[in-house]
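Action item from last week, closing it out:
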Amino acid sequence: MRIVQFVSKALQAIAILAATACFGTTAFAQTDQPLRMADVAPDMVAGANNYHLGSGDQIRVIVYGEDDLGGQFTVDGNGFVSLPLIGQVKASGFAAPDLEIAITNKLADGYVNNPKVSVEITTYRPFYVIGQVNKPGEYPFVNGMTVLNAVALAGGYTTQADDADVYVRRNGTAKEQEVPADQTTQIYPGDVVRVSQTTFWKVVTVLSPIAQAAAPLAYLAVQ
């Protein structure tokens, strides 16, 4: 009899918690409002001269009058590009104009007289979408990318997704920020976008093992 009462109370508690999560999610919500884009935008803007290069970016280097010294290059995992004649040049963290200066200085150091160099970003490093989307993974970045575009590329939300806000970890940072899941939230190269579960599904996920463990006891108690 005690087993029946225990199982009954446990199942009632599970039902109450699930119902609370479904109809009273505000009780679980954070009191802080999600950050707007202006609060979390990095100091780099894709397509602008202050965009900071990183691993995975592809650039075109032109050395005027020296066609053999230019070409298409990719910033490697260590943040370098390997160029003809002068070898490896640090690129990660540099804006395109700064990299032009670095390459110019190396070429001028005994290789080319009065070199003139141009650096253009041809392909930005990818961004990533994880969590409650149908096709999580790596996606190519294009200018003007927003959270809505990113989620659409990743196959849209799953049935368990919280489609009000997402979590974004900016490239080069360790902490993710909660931001609105709308067209105001810009995505940048290297960002990781995480779509979380709704509070209801979070509670269900936590309680599911408890319910599974209680089910055999309930079955035995009624035999």
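Closing note: The helical segments are 2-23, 37-40, 96-108, 147-153, 199-221.
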